[in-house]
Each structure stands twice: as structure tokens, then as C-alpha cells.
Amino acid sequence: MATNASPPLQLATAFRPLASASGGGGGGLLAGGGVATGRGFRGRTTQRWVAERSVASDRDVQGPVSPEEGLPIVLNSIDSSAIASNIKHHAEFKPLFSPEHFSPLKAYHATAKSVLDALLINWNATYDYYNKMNVKQAYYLSMEFLQGRALTNAIGNLELTGEYAEALKQLGHNLEDVTSQEPDAALGNGGLGRLASCFLDSLATLNYPAWGYGLRYKYGLFKQLITKDGQEEIAENWLEMGYPWEIVRNDVSYAVKFYGKVVEGTDGRKHWIGGENIKAVAHDVPIPGYKTRTTNNLRLWSTTVPAQDFDLGAFNAGDHTKAYEAHLNAEKICHVLYPGDESPEGKVLRLKQQYTLCSASLQDIIARFETRAGNSLNWEDFPSRVAVQMNDTHPTLCIPELMRILIDFKGLSWDEAWSITERTVAYTNHTVLPEALEKWSLDIMQKLLPRHVEIIEQIDEELMNSIVSKYGTADTALLKKKLKEMRILDNVDLPASIAQLFVKPKEKKESPTKSKKKLLVKSLETIDEVEEKTELEEEEAEVLSETEEEKVEYEEIEAAEKEDSEGELDPFVKSDPKLPRVVRMANLCVVGGHSVNGVAEIHSEIVKQDVFNSFYEMWPTKFQNKTNGVTPRRWMRFCNPELSSIISKWIGSDDWVLNTDKLAELKRFASNEDLHSEWRAAKWANKMKVVSLIRDKTGYIVSPDAMFDVQVKRIHEYKRQLLNILGIVYRYKKMKEMSAEQRVKSFIPRVCIFGGKAFATYIQAKRIVKFITDVAATVNHDSDIGDLLKVIFVPDYNVSVAEALIPASELSQHISTAGMEASGTSNMKFAMNGCILIGTLDGANVEIREEVGEENFFLFGAEAHEIVGLRKERAEGKFVPDPRFEEVKAFVRSGVFGTYNYDELMGSLEGNEGYGRADYFLVGKDFPSYIECQEKVDEAYRDQKLWTKMSILNTASSSKFSSDRTIHEYAKDIWDIKPVILP
């Protein structure tokens, strides 16, 4: 790790860039951890220069500190003209674009740098205070952070939205146009990454000491295009114009190793040598809290190799590919989120990504721990200073990596390292889908991470010893079951110490070979003595040396006896060569951490009773629930200012933004006609914005008078976008069979909006996208139907699109097969914004319905406890489909939606068994319940007074689903961290 640090330049004015952003190792974000005083644009404070010890090195560096122990003074006034001056300064003196024209894009970058000036002060003050107090800190490791646009969030959290709007107006721009220039950071895909970002917001807002760690993907997942062929993927270009919110920490880097071999040194320690070495470089992004100076850090790793790894000789010889090979191998690790893993190369790349995240982050965490501890370093203190949360199974390698560092580099014993690791690491499970509970090829991992496989093998053996200790050996069938379910290594030979427990007893009778052996060793004192020995003793050898024939015969008898003994072992102890040997990452997470949590009450029960039931029986206190939440700042206050103002007016303050329990006060006014009028006006304004968005992104024109019916989420069969679109097809078919008068009487106008990405290699999901767009092309051009029904697929769905769609939505679909959605978080965002949900009793839907009231939630479908029985019924050929379902499939196959052959898609809903058939996700089973529930939706929407009341009660009852509540629970029950208020 490099530790070069230079002092920041002393600035002439308070509105120049306030500090450079170098620093070393685990040091502060300014040089040497120094703090430039001031509160951004809140005002000026005096600075004095002192010699200060650098956190990054032992050198003295120059750094500015304030009179109050290096911490900035908070002031509470600001002038929009000063902000305008600062923005103009960044545009003129930090130009990223040509000076001729102050375009909206240039204005965005200058504005972002201006805001970063303010954030840097609090950012460094936060970091330095954590260091000074040596507090316990949580580190959230996630492969995804779906941040969304940073500008709106940052100025909102700094309470400077109005001032920045006025400043930009003075410069000839409006804030909305400028913020729209910011591309969404392509660091995630769906709910996993958005949850992580909500958590970071809440951690900063609640003043908890915590950092996020992730990877800096150059292209993200992909940019989605919708063409006549459905979804097409191209590389995301979010970094092409630069990312003004990050600070590249070239002085903070760590070596990460792959391949090589493990040897034992003369010191008795294991050494991982040779192989391929890369460098992980830190990129820091500020995470400001709301109405607080706390500004935490999201540290993202990029990957490269040192300059000397560029093969200049090969380049000059004309072999340019070879010259750049090491750089390419390193840099491609962070090119794409979730690279396709159909090929061996793709699998290796994904495993490299996961290990890079774990290794670089843990090295950084440990360096920070050692720096803070100073001369009083005691590794037993590590779990009382560090909490590591693994967001799903992607960071599982944290467990063997922490063990490796503690044992191989810090000199701890296995037992000491295991105790520290288990008390430090915790695991959040986000799925019950078997394919998402990661299993890695042991052979690939053995080649790529040989030392980690050794550690995992030992953890696996110790786990098996614990299982044997708990269940004993009397009931071998039970013991086999537990070992099969709980082992970390699957389809791998049992170690000898465990295998010997599964030896089949043989009849005790003496074979002819045994009698012959007795004669051969007759000179020995006892037969028992020979049978206990593994090698021939001298006197035994003398007897056998009488003739060469006798020696050979004795060896043959020994070999035959050994073969007989091996044949007595239960086949259970051996691997099946026809099946792959794998590492079950979820099992390793459960074994290696002190806490396992699900993300909704129903999900956590499934985790305990089904997914990890054997582990729950062994360690019941490890398991707990932490129902997800979303930040009310981004998902109400900032994305829906119209509704937020109404809420604050009727409640009497905006305290609800920090304390969502106060939303319940709206219930008093749920029937108030004045509130209804204002509420509907806010919804109308938001719908008008979406009318423009739809026109711009798809070319379709929709009516704001229609109900906006929305399903936006990752495209997956279990989320059942297929059920939604088949319901729309049924609706369309019935409309076509009616007269114009009957249609208007029978159906309310709807705009049915879809959004979400199908993974590039998920063929069935891509068929669903194609089907939705084909239905849209037919329905939207049908003059008979007009505005009574429109179908829209919004391309390249992301956080910014969600921020527009969610406030405008009136009905939101959360219709996954019961028991398959861990939680969901978009359901919470919709409910907060007064949108009414239609859904199954799945994930957080269960708790949302409990909170908002059964009468304010449209429920349909089979329940989780019924699913296994329903699939069994299907396999036995007992399922009888509803005639309406058969009618819809026949209508699709008739070709009404174009020439594309939908036999494969419809065929997945047919048959009684087989991969890709038999309607595994129960679309056909729930279809009649779904369309009947949609009729109730139409009926309720006709009564706008009733609908508005339902909408208000959804918002008023959504307080539980703030991520602030979730984070308080994590902090108390899992991480054991306390808020730290900067003085």
C-alpha cells in the first residue's frame, strides 16, 4: 500500500476548493487526515497551520486544524450568490469541458464540485472523530450499491436545495435541468443494491459510524435498449463524462493475489506464493446524512497492476497484446457487474470479483484497526471495534480471508482466529431461490484460491465434528442427513476421522487368507500384536524372509484385507465422480458468522424452518429477522416534494422525515375533503411528469386521467411479470369482444407500466420482455381501445426513473409466487407515496398489509404454506386450469400480437413436470384469483373519495418501513454500535 501524502494548498477564499483529497492508508480524506475548517457554504472560520502526525505514515505533514480540536464550526446561513460564485469558479478554473459554452452538462459538473466542497469538510471531520474516539465501526460489504443521482440527494441532505436552485437560476439554468444531466451510477441492478444505498443513507443520518465497501464497475450491468426484437444490451456509459462525486485514492491500494501455491515455511506458517498479483485502488464517495454533519464513506475498489507489469519489451517487439495482458486481466475484474458465468472464464471472473471485494476491504479494515490501536494493539479487541456485514453470499470469502490474514500474517492460532472471525462477521440472507444460494466449483476455487480452500476444508471438518458431537453416532441415518444438509463442501469425500463412523459391520469369521497369515507370522508372540501394527517389525520380517515366495504371499494377503476393509465403507463417505464438487457459500456464511438474518418476517421464518433448518436447530440464537426499509429522504422528501409539502402542512412540521412514526398523524385527516383535494392535485402533478417521461422514452402518449398501474423490478419468472401481462391480455380480449359503451361501463382507463432488466443470459425473462413490448405495440395502436388501455415498457429502468414513476403510481403490482420474494423494497416505496398495492402474501407484503389494513390492500393468490402441495398436485396431473387461463393462452398463440412464436413461453405454463414446464411459479393457479382481484381494483378506483382515503392511509401507515428503523435494529442486535455525534 502506498502512503504518499501531500499537504493541501492553503486557499485564498472560503469559496475556493477547500482541500485536496489525498491521504494515506486508512487515513483521512484530506492529506494526513488533516481537516480544513469551515462548514462548506455555511460560512468561514479561521484556520491555523500546525505540524500533525500523518495517519498514513510516520512523517510530519502540514494540515489545517480549527481552534476546536480540528473540527469545523457549524454555521447556519448561506447566500445563493456565494454559491453561484463558487459554481462559476469550478466551471472556469476546474474545466472538464470547453469554455465557450456554459451548457447544462458543464453546469452539472461545476455544481457537483461545489457541493463536494461542502461535503469534504464534514467528511473529514467525521472520519477524524471516529479515529479519535476509536469507536466500534460497522463495514457493509455488498456487490451492489444502487445509489441513483447524488446531486439532488446531497443538496437535500445539506438543506441547500432552495439555495442551489436560486444560484443556478442566477447562472441561467434551472436545477431540474442540471440534475437531469447526472447519469445514475451503474453500481447495481435491483433491490439488493438499492437496499444497501438506503442503509448507507440511514447510517449517516442516524450518526452511526459505518462505511460501505463495493466495486467500481466501469460499465455496470448493461444499458437496456428496447427494439422490435425485445431487450438488447449495450455497455453502460456512466463514467464517460467523469464522476465528480468520487475521489480517487491512489495512495490507498492493496495487493490481491490469485493462483499460485501454498508452502509451509521454516516458521511453521503457511505461505501463499507465486501466482498472479493485482492492485485494488480505492475510490471514495461521500454519503451525507440528513440534518447532520455526519458524512460517511462508500469505498469502491478498481483493479489494475503496477506500471512495471506492462511488458515494454513485448510491446516494442510488436506483441502488443502480450504487453498489455497483465493490465487487461486485472482491469476486467471491475468491468461488468455479474459477468456471464456460463463459461469457465466467466465463473473465474465472478470469483475474482468477489475475492477482490473481500480481500481489499478486509486489508483496509485491518489497517484502520491497527492504526487506531497504536501501541495497545490486541487482536482480541478486533470484534469489539469492527463489525463486518455480508450483504448476501457474494462477500462470503471474507470468512476464510480474515482467517488467512490472522493466522498467516498476524501469527494467531486457529482457535484464536476462528473466535475473532465468528464474532466479527454477520450474514444477511436475501433469497430462498436455490440458484441464488451460491455454489462455487471446488476445482476452480482450488486453482484460484488454494490457501482459502485449505481453510474452508478445515472449517468444514470442524463443522462435521460439531454435528457428530450434537447428534451422536447411534442413528447413522440422521447423522447422514445432517451432514448432507450442513456440510460446506458438497460431493467431497468425508475426511478419514468422520468416514470411519460409517463402516458397515462384517460377520466375524476367519477367512482362509487369515489362517494363512497366522501361519506366516507364527513366530510372533500374539496374533493381536500383528493386527495392531501398520508396518512389519524386525522379528516379523525375519520370519517372512525364509523364502521370497512367503514374503510376496504375505503382501498379497495384506492388500486383499485392505481392499476388503475399504469395501465395507458406506458409499456415503465417497464423492460421486459424475457430479461436481462444490463449495456451498451460504452454509459457510451461517457457520462462520455470529448472526444470520432474513429481511422480512415471513422470509426469516422460511430461512429458519426450511432453507437453514438444520443450522437453526443447532444454533437457534444465531437467527433473527430484520425487515427491510427504505430511506424517506430520497423516496419521499426529495422525489415527491409536492406530497411531502402537503404532509408537512397537515402534520404541522417536517419532523416525519426523520421520525416516520409521525406520519400516523395523517390518519386523523384521512376523510378530510380539503386534504383529498390537495392529495389528488399532487398525484396529478406527478402523473404529468410521467406522461412527459413516457413520451420522451417510448414515443407513446398516455392520458393522465387513466389509472397508472405499475410493475417495475428485475424481470424474473418468480416476480411474475408474465401473470401481469397475461391479465392485461385477458382485459384487452374482453374489451375487444364488447361494444364501446360496454367497455367504458366495464373497465376504468389504465396505463399499465413495466420496467426492469432481464439478465442477459436469462432467455425466459427476455421472452417475457419481448411479449410485453409486442402486446404494447398491438394494444397502443388499437383505435377501438384508445385511452382505455395502454401498455408501456420503460427502457433502462433505474433509480432516477423510479423517482419519477413511484410518486405518480396509483396501483403497484407485487405479485411474486408466495414464499419466493425475500422482502421487496419497492413495495415500501410505493406505499409511502400513497400508492395502493395488489399482491400476494409474500415478503414484506405481509407486513405492509398488516400496517395499512386489509381493506387498503388488494390481496389474491395462494399462500406460502400451500406452494409445495400445489406443485405436488401439478406433478401428479391433478391440476385443472381455469377456462379463462386456457382462453388467454390460445389468444396469444393465435398471432394477434405479431409473428413471434410464443410456444416456448406458453409451454412453460403447461405439462406436469420437466425443466421449464409445469408452471413452477403457479401463474395458472393464481390467474383466476388475480383477474377477479383486478375487478375489485376497478370498482374501488371508480370511487375516487374511497381511493384517495386508501391512498392517504397507505402513506400514514408506512412508518415501519423506514430504513432508519431497520438500521437501529441492525446496530443494536447485530453490530453493537452506537451513534457518534460530532461536537
| Share of helix, binned | 40-55%
Content of β-strand:
5-15%
Gyration radius, in Å: 32 Å
Shape: globular
Cofactor: pyridoxal 5'-phosphate
InterPro entries: Glyco_trans_35, Pyridoxal_P_attach_site
Modified residues (N6-(pyridoxal phosphate)lysine): 829
EC number: 2.4.1.1
Description:
One of its GO terms (molecular function) is 1,4-alpha-oligoglucan phosphorylase activity. Belongs to the glycogen phosphorylase family. Its cofactor is pyridoxal 5'-phosphate. The chain has 983 residues and is α/β, with parallel strands linked by helices. Strands 7-10-11-4-3-12-13-17-18 form a nine-stranded mixed β-sheet, sandwiched between helices. Helix 15 packs antiparallel against helix 16 (476-486). The two termini are 32 Å apart.
Question: Quick gist of this model?
Answer:
One of its GO terms (molecular function) is 1,4-alpha-oligoglucan phosphorylase activity. The chain is an alpha/beta fold and 983 residues long.
Features:
glycosyltransferase; single chain; transit peptide; Glyco_trans_35; nine-stranded mixed β-sheet; six-stranded parallel β-sheet; 983 residues; alpha/beta; pyridoxal phosphate; plastid; 39 helices
List the helices and strands and how they pair.
Blueprint: E1 48-53, E2 60-65, H1 80-93, H2 104-133, E3 137-141, H3 150-157, H4 161-170, H5 175-179, H6 191-205, E4 210-215, E5 223-227, E6 230-234, E7 247-258, E8 261-264, E9 270-273, E10 276-288, E11 295-304, H7 312-316, H8 320-323, H9 325-331, H10 344-373, H11 382-385, E12 386-391, H12 398-409, H13 414-424, E13 425-428, E14 439-441, H14 442-448, H15 450-471, H16 476-486, E15 489-490, H17 496-499, H18 512-520, H19 527-531, H20 538-544, H21 548-567, E16 582-584, H22 585-592, E17 596-598, H23 601-611, H24 613-618, E18 623-625, H25 632-638, H26 641-651, H27 673-698, E19 707-712, H28 721-736, H29 740-746, E20 750-755, H30 763-779, E21 789-794, H31 799-808, E22 811-814, H32 826-832, E23 836-839, H33 845-852, E24 858-859, H34 867-875, H35 883-893, H36 903-907, H37 923-942, H38 944-956, H39 963-975
Parallel strand pairs: 3-4, 3-12, 4-11, 12-13, 13-17, 17-18, 19-20, 19-22, 20-21, 22-23, 23-24
Antiparallel strand pairs: 1-2, 5-6, 7-10, 8-9, 10-11, 14-16, 15-16
Helix pairs in contact: 1-2, 1-4, 6-39, 10-12, 12-13, 12-15, 14-15, 15-16, 26-27, 27-31, 27-38, 28-30, 28-35, 28-37
